[in-house]
Amino acid sequence: MIRNRSALGDAGPPARRLVHALVAAVAGGTLVVSLAACSGGGDSGSEAGSDGAAARSEMVAPGAAEDQAADAATGAIGLAEAHEETVDRELVTTGNATLAVEDPFAAAEQIAGLVEEAGGRVEARDERAETDDEPGSASMTLRIPADRVSATLDALDKLGDVRDRHVETLDVTGTAQDLDARIEALRTSTDRLRELMAEADRTADLIEIEAELSTRQAELDSRVSERNRLSDEVAMSTLQVEIVAEGTPAAQAKPGGFVGGLTAGWSALVSTFNVVVLILGAIIPWLALGGVVLLVVVGVRRQLAKARSGGPTPPAVEPEPVEP
Predict the structure, then answer these.
(1) What is the dihedral of CA 196, 198, 203, 204, to 10 degrees?
(2) Residue-level pLDDT at 186
(3) Do 159 and 184 contact (CB within 8 A), yes or no?
(4) By the 8 A CB rule, do 145 and 116 touch?
(5) Residue 256: what pLDDT?
(6) Which stretches in the chain have pLDDT values below 70?
(7) Cβ neighbours of residue 247 under 8 Å, at least 6 residues apart?
(8) Given strand 121-128, what is the order of strands in its sheet?
(9) Degrees (nearest 5) of the Cα angle 252, 255, 258?
(10) What does the buried/exposed string (b/e) look like for 121-158 if buried means 16 or more CB atoms within 10 Å of the residue's CB?
(11) What is the pLDDT of residue 18?
């Protein structure tokens, strides 16, 4: 090493300048490489940054997609609710009320007039006259347009004392839609069967198609009848009105349904028992008189029999003596 340094130190100025030039060249090359590396790092960093941004965008994208799906679901629910709101609901309304008035028969006439004015009809009417045990009363089954039920119930307040009232509404929209779909399908099926029957060229096919058509037509008629009955129940509500005389306890108002039938049966049994007792009470005196007459007749016949057996007896005949 000393020898090398000495050699360099002994070298002249040209040699020293050459060494400096080489050192400068090496340093410049190192600087260029470093700059290139920095620039490459910057490019890779930018690429990494873009990749990171892409990754971040990809990470954000699923959340945005979920939000969009949620918005779409909310929109679908909103459309469904709007569709439900636009569907005409079909409701069956039934009710009952108890009305206490001074004259049940006159009140029944007034109620019938109110129903006719409302566009309805009296489907059933039962009037019971006053008896010793029960005051007069009446029962009416009314069919009223659905939009006039409340007005009719309010009108009852003007006729007397409404002791109780009950109104119930049943939504039958689903049932009506199901019947409509079945009717439409059956009509399409029967029309197609008629076309096939017109095109049939064999007797066996014609008989088979006609039998199937009869079955489908009977089912169609049944469904149409059921749909008409449901439409009538929707259009005309049923209201049961019990009319009792004023002063009649609420407990004496005749209930309907099973309890009403049980009460009516018990009342009929009691009435029958009362009739039987009444008949027995009317018959017993005659039975007693007949028994007395029978005893007299039996006694007289016994006396006559004794009198006949106690008359004059014939003389006794003595036996003749036997000779020895």
Answers:
(1) 10
(2) 94
(3) no
(4) no
(5) 57
(6) 1-87, 248-260, 310-324
(7) 135
(8) 121-128, 137-145, 236-245, 91-101, 161-171
(9) 135
(10) ebeeeeebeeeeeeebbbbbebbbebebbeebbebbee
(11) 47
Helix (H) or strand (E) holding 227: helix 203-235
User: How far apart, in whole angstroms, are the C-alpha atoms of residue 180 and residue 220?
Assistant: 11
The 8-class DSSP code of residue 138 comes to: E
Q: Which of 75, 74, 139 is nearest to 105 (CA)?
A: 139
> Would you state the pLDDT for residue 4?
41
Residue (of 255, 243, 260) closest to 138 by Cα position: 243
Residue 56 has what pLDDT? 42
User: What integer pLDDT is reported at residue 74 of this predicted model?
Assistant: 56
- Looking at residue 111, the DSSP 8-state letter turns out to be H
**Looking up tokens 């400096």, which residue turns up?**
20
- 135/54 Cα distance (integer angstroms): 93
DSSP three-state, residue 123: strand
User: For the chain, what percentages of helix, strand and coil (3-state, to nearest 5) are there?
Assistant: 70, 15, 15
Residue recorded with tokens 């990470």: 59
Residues 149-173 pLDDT 10s: 888 888 888 888 888 888 999 999 9
- 3 state SS of 135: coil
Residue 161, beta-bridge partner list: 100
DSSP code, position 203: H
